[in-house]
């Protein structure tokens, strides 16, 4: 008999299983049934892995369990005397897969049962991958609370039987380190909080018009475009972020936003500017532009192992191209107007990214202008409004939903109710097409926030969107 | 030869000692001389205690050193290759006193030398107590920075010879958990940041009119006056805060603000109110009021070991006393007017606190109304304006300066320049009287802030005031 089935039968046998009535878990699991028994969580709660196929060489599970314990004890000293019965002594985690590569589409499902009989009492977590187990630990932590009478961590309404899996494989949050530099410790704080809501993609909008804070070993002058000497990330810092995120089940999607939103690139390499007086978009006529992009994406591919890379492509004002003689000449020689040149730039850049093993994300303007030309590996990133996702998936491309009216966190007048009610599948009825919506993303653009208020601006609204989990 | 003298001679011998020109240490040490040699801080920097008399049984020093290392590595991965010379290998800390009781007046001075010769290169810290050594480590951390070329932590301008001691023994910051509840983790974050600026007293304005969040074992219904079930501190939580602060050289000054600012007390014990319709100040006529205060201060004395306790005494509106028949009668029977009763209340409460081993702090209204009657152990806490401190010390009492125009952090229009320029000894010329000003305190009243913005509101202005260190 499969362990899960055995547990289910044991659960049903004790007869105290009632339908979900009041469950304070966020996001709500696919299924959660519980009883009425209060349990006490042992101060010395033990992690065990009996029956697991996962060796945990990188301590992903062990560290996640320790973080769970730290979180439970964060705000009160749980020093009450442990009673003699109904004490939860451990968490046993069974992970079926020995692999722990985190990437797009990894299985994040889990089952968790917490019975009121057995010796010792323990929570039983079963998951295909360690990342499903991490989600289970988040759910477990939400069942626990400090009780002021017993002075212990308690867990109400056992037994529990929870079955859960995300609705979408992509559940993103954008941060923007170009408009305001964010220290590593701040980014890590954001990642920690993402894991509480089971968000799984940090979309790192690293560079933009205003600053180029990251080191690119292939082109070491690019970060001359940083705001200051100290407002920079080394590639080792980027690796640190990626590893930190991975250990929490969070992928990192890196973005360079080309050909617009790239003025800062030319501080180190002025040849990337159309001219000294007209600096954006990147010079489409100069092969050097694409050589630099190839260098960046080559360097990225060593660090950002997520299957997707974001190439931007939004808000391209091409007036500098027609205002600059040598580009105007190049357009004429190549029989292109500025629309052709914009398409040429995006498609050439897509090819470079794909040559480095990436699938490509582009903002929706690329689809709106020349959707049929986009590489079939493209994921179109909606932002302007609510009507593009149906068109994207009807065209057979994948889509990420971030319609700004509901899911832009820099819109301070966007309410949590709006975040919560936003439906990524709005207007898409065909199940095949629905599957092409890989998920959604809330966007914390950086013009108006910095390290002092980014977390307060992200939460709790991002958590409301995570209700779509 | 004394170690310090030997070091001084070694320092002078190498001939590279120049006068202070540009030193980025905050607050500025009493004396700091340095040279021009860049050092590299080893990734494996070692703490040693050769010559120390301090056993560090509570790991105060060891943990502080680890925090220093964590801080240095917080925002960049320092993974450059270590050069073969000029590598700082360790910090040797000599603490003369084996004792580590933290309290008012503990010696916080230190000397630190960082030479460019010797094997291995190390920072030498000498201090009377471990708390001086902690201050030295803060200074040390400020000398270090991440260098983007070497990818190492570096320390410029060695050799260094720093001599330092605080100007005032009391360097406070007030937090207010009655107007908004602050989670333990937030309070700990404030304490961490205090230590960076060498502030040494957390004045915990625990309870007030709006809420009574703390557990009082002697009167277990008092925290019925909390905002909610979860917005409470157990006594174990308070002990946790005190221990956490002590390990960072920060004392905790607990306050109950009586007889005004105490409406919330009556939620659990309505007898403390003059009547159900007139609830503040505490009922002066009822012996039970003083029994409760005795219980609170008895419980406090087991947890808050700082020599001082704060009894408030400000903003007492006595109209409820004259509006309540049984109190009006009591006043008449005892031949008191309301001013007499206010004095009676404060003095009786002082006696209770002193009976529990405390010296007493009271807000300045008590001095302004009946200064000559205050116990000689009283420390008068200025807040209204700039002119009371000279009167207090002229009367032979001690004083803490917190004039609201410059040092109230809830005054959002009070600038850091104003914080920086505020002079606690303004108008006091006699050195004997100057010594009675035990220090200053900046006050973060809680009406307008909560956990989401308290740190951003405290800093950097509180650090500007810490320039008075």
TrEMBL record, chains A, B:
It comes from the Eukaryota. This is Uncharacterized protein. It comes from Avena sativa (Oat).
């Amino acid at each position: 008999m499969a362990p899960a089935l055995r547990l289910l039968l044991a659960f049903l046998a004790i007869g105290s299983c009632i339908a979900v009535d009041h469950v304070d878990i966020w996001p709500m699991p696919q299924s959660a049934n519980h009883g009425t028994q209060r349990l006490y969580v042992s101060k010395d709660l033990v992690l065990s892995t009996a029956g697991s196929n996962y060796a945990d060489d990188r301590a992903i599970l062990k560290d996640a369990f320790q973080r769970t314990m730290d979180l439970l004890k964060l705000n009160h000293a749980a020093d009450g005397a442990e009673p003699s019965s109904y004490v939860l002594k451990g968490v046993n985690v069974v992970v079926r897969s020995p692999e722990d590569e985190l990437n797009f589409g990894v299985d994040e499902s889990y089952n968790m049962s917490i019975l009121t009989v057995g010796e010792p009492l323990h929570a039983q977590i079963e998951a295909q991958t360690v990342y499903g187990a991490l989600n289970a630990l988040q759910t477990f932590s939400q069942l626990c609370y400090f009780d002021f009478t017993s002075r212990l961590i308690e867990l109400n309404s056992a037994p529990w039987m929870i079955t859960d899996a995300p609705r979408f494989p992509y559940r993103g949050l954008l941060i923007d380190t170009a408009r305001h530099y964010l220290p590593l410790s701040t980014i890590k704080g954001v990642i920690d909080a993402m894991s509480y809501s089971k968000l799984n993609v940090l979309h790192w909008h690293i560079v933009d018009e205003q600053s180029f804070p990251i080191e690119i070993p292939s082109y070491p002058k690019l970060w001359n475009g940083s705001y200051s000497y100290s407002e920079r990330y080394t590639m080792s810092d980027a690796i640190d972020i990626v590893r930190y995120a991975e250990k929490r089940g969070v992928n990192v999607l890196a973005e360079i936003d080309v050909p617009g939103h790239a003025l800062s690139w030319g501080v180190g390499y002025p040849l990337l500017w159309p001219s000294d007086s007209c600096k954006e978009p990147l010079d489409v006529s100069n092969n050097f532009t694409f050589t630099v992009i190839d260098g960046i994406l080559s360097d990225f591919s060593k660090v950002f192992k997520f299957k997707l890379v974001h190439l931007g492509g939004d808000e391209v004002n091409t007036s500098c191209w027609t205002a600059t003689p040598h580009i105007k000449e190049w357009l004429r020689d190549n029989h292109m107007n500025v629309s052709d040149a914009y398409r040429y730039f995006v498609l050439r850049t897509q090819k470079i990214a794909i040559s480095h093993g990436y699938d490509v994300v582009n903002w929706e303007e690329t689809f709106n202008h020349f959707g049929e030309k986009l590489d079939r590996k493209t994921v179109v990133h909606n932002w302007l409004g609510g009507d593009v996702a149906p068109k994207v998936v009807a065209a057979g491309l994948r889509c990420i939903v971030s319609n700004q009216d509901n899911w832009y966190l820099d819109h301070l007048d966007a309410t949590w109710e709006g975040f919560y009610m936003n439906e990524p599948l709005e207007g898409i009825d065909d199940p095949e097409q629905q599957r092409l919506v890989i998920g959604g993303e809330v966007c914390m653009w950086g013009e108006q926030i910095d390290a002092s208020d980014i977390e307060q601006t992200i939460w709790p609204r991002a958590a409301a969107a995570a209700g779509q989990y």
